[in-house]
Write a structure and sequence with these properties.
This protein is mainly β.
Length: about 170
């Protein structure tokens, strides 16, 4: 029997232990292009070990609720930023680490205009756009070496509902 897991809206405060929420929030850091463009500067901490920073494109199939979370992964050699290129919300699932094992998973749902950067070595779910396929620009480590660890939960988690509109 799966364990129920509640999904919440993605906020920078709640997501801070796991990564950065990348969005145009608050006032721009400065105005550029003759005052026609606000620059929100340096919104993610890209962290790469023994490799190069690259930009890849992902084309992810749609997921539906209820969603069964049976596996998470992490990347010990680099952070991963996911920047939607389509107007599709997506689930962001992260977990704490306890002696190399993911514990206490948390599920978030993005709002329009939000992107994320998952810190290096943070357990997280797979890319999961809800309701419709989604395309993403992904900024992460390109290089050799073991940069993927997967963990399958003995008892999976079930996310059955999206957060209520606030």
């Amino acid at each position: 029997m799966p364990i129920d897991l509640q999904m919440n809206w993605l906020t920078a405060v709640d997501f801070a232990p796991y990564g950065d929420v990348i969005e145009c929030a608050g006032a721009p850091d400065k105005m550029i292009n003759a005052g026609m463009c606000g620059r929100f500067h340096d919104r993610a901490k890209i962290d790469i070990v023994d490799g190069a920073t690259g930009i890849s494109l992902f084309d992810a199939k749609a997921r539906q609720l209820p969603y069964l979370l049976d596996m998470v992964e992490r990347h010990p050699l680099g952070s991963q930023a996911f920047i939607p290129m389509s107007q599709t919300c997506f689930m962001v699932i992260v977990a704490d680490d306890q002696d190399g094992v993911p514990v206490n998973p948390r599920a978030f749902l993005t709002k329009d205009g939000q992107s994320i950067n998952i810190y290096r070595n943070i357990w997280h779910g797979v890319l999961a756009p809800l309701g419709a396929a989604g395309q993403y620009a992904v900024v992460d480590r390109i290089g050799t070496g073991a940069n993927l660890q997967e963990h399958y939960f003995e008892t999976p988690y079930l996310i059955s509902a999206a957060p209520v509109i606030s």
